[in-house]
Structure formats: structure tokens, C-alpha cells
Amino acid sequence: MDSQQPQEIRAGYVEVAGLSTWHEVGGRGPAVVLLHGGFSGASSWAAQASALREAGFRVYVPERRGHAHTPDVEGPFGYGVMADDMVAYLDQVVGGPADLVGWSDGAVVAVLVALTRPDLVRRLVLIGQYYNSSGKLPNSPLLAFLRSPQAVGYLRQEYDAVSPDGPGHFPVVFAKMMAMIEQEPELDLDRLREVNAPTLVLQGDQDEVTLGHSIEVVSKLAGGRLAVLPGGHALPMECPEVVGSLLVFFLRAGMAQGDEPGTPRG
């Protein structure tokens, strides 16, 4: 990696399609957008964002509606709505196509963006996620844990520390998140044949998605590759250096001659 690449990071709010969205931006070069998982935010990508900036990428880390610093909005959560938000972010803030790296819920958002606006997606990395209930680990320990007092207390503490909606709003966001992840996603995997972007599917060997499901996902993708690491659902945080190196390796392979580091955008 080139340690001489600039590491200046701008963090703050940007207005995107009427929604006040918090994001971090830094680095120079081709755009990479990191999409966090449920109940998390930009901090979950700290190690990978740094590795990608050093490798010569312009890294964008937005926080979705009702997550971390980004305020909630009226109405239920849904992957389709979040994908629409991301399309608006790519159009307005990034200003063109980008590599999308999604973990957990963020991977669903990335896939939906690739299906609805393929012109905005160069390459995809999808980490630790099923795309319909056939790929969900039976008797998911994660869902059971999320409803435990231990998890609720931890998530509430993290949310209250940064949310502009205030501590009293956490039960609303928690209820909307649980409703979404218990009902969605239910994507027909045959639709993945429409995704032309080269795609790396990555999961842990003790993840929330079955290995058979990830193999089927890769088989539907025109340019799908699969990697399995020793770990659970939180791979970006469990294996930060390994995941960062994989991202750099895969995304650098897509750098075209004209995509060498240059003037930052956004």
C-alpha cells in the first residue's frame, strides 16, 4: 500500500434528496462507498476505510436513515427505501459510478442499487448476508441475541451517544429494524443474473448466512467470486486487516487506466 496517499477525512452532514445524511469522505482516486450493517455506522468500517484510502481510493462512508448520526424519518424501514437513498447519494454526492462494499444489511442495499441503477456500480463486495429466507441460518443466534437485554442495552447506549433524535427515540428505531430484518429480504436469486458488475461474495465460516446460499448467489452472478474466512457475522471488525487486504486486492483489479488516483470528488 502507498502510505503517501492523503488521509484527510471530512465528516459531517450533507442533504440528500431531502434527508440529512451524515458521512465521512477521504482519500483520492476511484470512488468506493462502504455500506454498514444494521444497528451500526461508519465506525464499523474504520480499518477498511483507512486501508482503501492508503491504496489509492476515494472512500465514502454514509450512515443510513435512523443509524448512528443520521436522523430517523417517518415510516417503516425497508431495503428498497434505503436503496433509493443510496442511489440519490451516488448521484448527488459521489457524482457517478463507484465500487460498493456492503456488509450485512448494507449488502442487500448494494445489490438493490446494482439491480435498479447498474450504471452507478462498477464492482460489488457483499459480506455476510442472505438475500432470501432460504439462506438464513436455522434458529439464527443473531436474531435471538438482538432481542436479549444485553444486546438491547448495548445498542441503546451506542445509539444514544450519537443520534440527533435523542435517547428517547431508540425504541422506535429498534422496533423498525427488527420488523425489517424479520421480514426481509426476500429476493428471487434469479434476479442476480441481471447484475453485471464483478462481485466478491465474502462470509465467515460461522456467519448468519449458509455457505450453500452464498454458493448459489455466486452461481447466479455473471462475475461472482466467493471467499470464506474463519469468523462470524462481524467480519469487518473480527478480521479487520484480512478483510481490508481482500477489498484492496479485489477492487484494485478493477482499476482501469483512467481510474488512477486524481482529483477528489464529492
UniProtKB/TrEMBL annotation:
Pfam families, A to Z: Abhydrolase_1
InterPro entries reported for this sequence: AB_hydrolase_1, AB_hydrolase_fold
Molecular-function annotations in GO: hydrolase activity
Positions of the AB hydrolase-1 domain: 30-189
Presence of keyword Hydrolase: yes
UniProtKB keywords: Hydrolase
Keyword Ribonucleoprotein annotated: no
Source domain of life: Bacteria
Name assigned to this protein: Alpha/beta hydrolase
